[in-house]
Amino acid sequence: MVKLQEHPLLKKIIENRSSLTPKGRILSDFILSNPRKVVFMTTKELAQACEVSEATVVRFVVQVGFDGYSNFQQALRDLVDTEMTLVDRVDLTDMGEPGADRFRHEVFKEIDNLKQMYRSLDIETIRAAASALHDSDNIFVVGSRLSFTLAYYFGWQLTKIRGNIQILKGSDSTSLDRLTIASPESLVILIATSRYPNELIRIAKHVRRMGHTLIVISDSSLCPVNGFARHVLVAPSKHIPIFGSTASLTCLINYIVLELSGRYGDALKMHQEKLERSYRENDILFNLEVFDG
C-alpha cells in the first residue's frame, strides 16, 4: 500500500512547506500527521487544533493550490478513502445510534453526495462522453467488485437504446482476450469505485495499448485509472462510505443514458420495438392481460 506521504496531495503540501509562514508550517505538519482527523474538521476546528486563526487556514489552502477549504477537504477525503481498511470504515460509524437516527443520517449523507456531484460535474464533459458513445460501433462496459454492479446496470440500460454492447467482469481474465480482439473502433467504459481493484488498472493499461477509446467513470479525481482515459467523469462523494456508495454514480449513469437516448431519433423507436416483440414472443416479462386470462 502506498504511504500517505507519497500521495500527490500530501506531496504538494510537503513541496510548498518551505514557502509557508511559520503558522502555515504548523498547519502543514498537523495535516501530514493527522489526515484522517483533518478530513472531518471544519476550518474553525482545524484552526483551534493548531492554535491559529481561521483566516490562516483559508490562506494556507490557497497557498498549497486550492480554491477554497471545501475543495481542499474533498481532495483530502478522496486521499483518505483510498487507503482506509474495512475495519477503519466501521470505526467511523456509531453503531450504537438508534435505528431511526442512523436511517436519517444515511439518507442525508446520500443527499450531500448528490449535491457534491451536481456542483462538481461539468455538463459539457458528460456530453462529450455521450458523443463518443454515440459514434462508437462497439462498446464494452467493464467493472469489478462493487463497480461491476454499476457496469452491469449501465450495460443493461445501453442495450435498451442500441446494439453491440458487451458487459465484462474485470476479475475474469478473458476480458483481456475480448478487448485484444475487439475492432479498433471499440470504446471501453470502465467504472471504478474505491478501493480500486488492481485488475481494473491492468485493463485500463491494456485498453490504451490496444488503441481503444477509454471512458472512465469513477468516484474520485484521485482514482488511479483516470489517467489512462480520453474522457473522465467523476462523481465524488462528500462522505467516506463504509462499504461503498453508489447513489451518485447511478444518477450519473442514468443521465448519460438519457442524454444518449435523445441522439438516436427514429432508430431508438425501431430498436425498442424489436425488443418488445421479443419480450412478447418469448414470454419474457410479466403481462397483466395474460395473467388475467
Automatic annotation (TrEMBL):
GO molecular function, one term: carbohydrate derivative binding
Any GO BP: carbohydrate derivative metabolic process
Domain of life where this protein originates: Bacteria
Record's keyword annotation contains rRNA processing: no
Domain SIS: 129-268
Keywords: DNA-binding, Transcription, Transcription regulation
Protein name (record): Transcriptional regulator, RpiR family
Species name: Desulfococcus multivorans DSM 2059
Record lineage: Bacteria, Pseudomonadati, Thermodesulfobacteriota, Desulfobacteria, Desulfobacterales
